[in-house]
Amino acid sequence: MRQTVEFSAAKRRMQGGSRLNFLIVMAILIAAGYVGYQVVPVVYRATLLESFMQDTVNNAAVANKSTAWVDQQIRGNAEDYGLPKDALIETRQDNGRLETHVKFTRTIPLVVTTYEYKFDHTVRSTTISTS
Fold first, then answer.
1. What's the CA gap between 117 and 40, in Å, rounded?
2. Where do runs of H (alpha helix) occur along 63-96?
3. CB 126 within 8 A of CB 58
4. Would you say 119 and 52 are in contact if contact means Cβ atoms under 8 Å apart?
């Protein structure tokens, strides 16, 4: 009889440890999910912005558009790509190729802290511009 009582007490302690492990794992998964929910959209939009920048400088080089046109296109689509109004956008012509540099910082609020996402990307046209 005594052996059965000891076995049931040990079994209850093991179950309590399993519950604690489950709660710890769930807390980690929820925290990772929340961070992903906050960070992934910002990174995704930044990736789309890089692609848009490349397409814009390539189109400008092919159509002999000015550097001002490239700036206007990027600023005009800023809202679609999460580009803040104070973003640094520099476009220049270098050795016949158009080059655009965009730099900004976005603050991402997390539960305990904030994360500073820094976007600093330069694209160069694949075609030589004749303008």
1. 11
2. 67-76
3. yes
4. no
CA distance 116 to 30: 21
Dihedral in degrees, nearest 10, Cα atoms 124, 80, 36, 31: 140
Domain locations along the chain:
2-124
Q: How far apart are CA 45 and CA 50, in angstroms?
A: 9
14 token code pair: 């093991």
Dist CA 79 CA 48 (whole Å): 12
> How many residues are given for the chain?
131
Q: Note the pLDDT tens digit of each residue in 99-111.
A: 999 999 999 988 8
pTM score: 0.78
Q: What is the pLDDT of residues 81-103, one digit of tens each?
A: 989 999 999 999 988 899 999 99
84 with 99: CB under 8 angstroms?
Answer: no
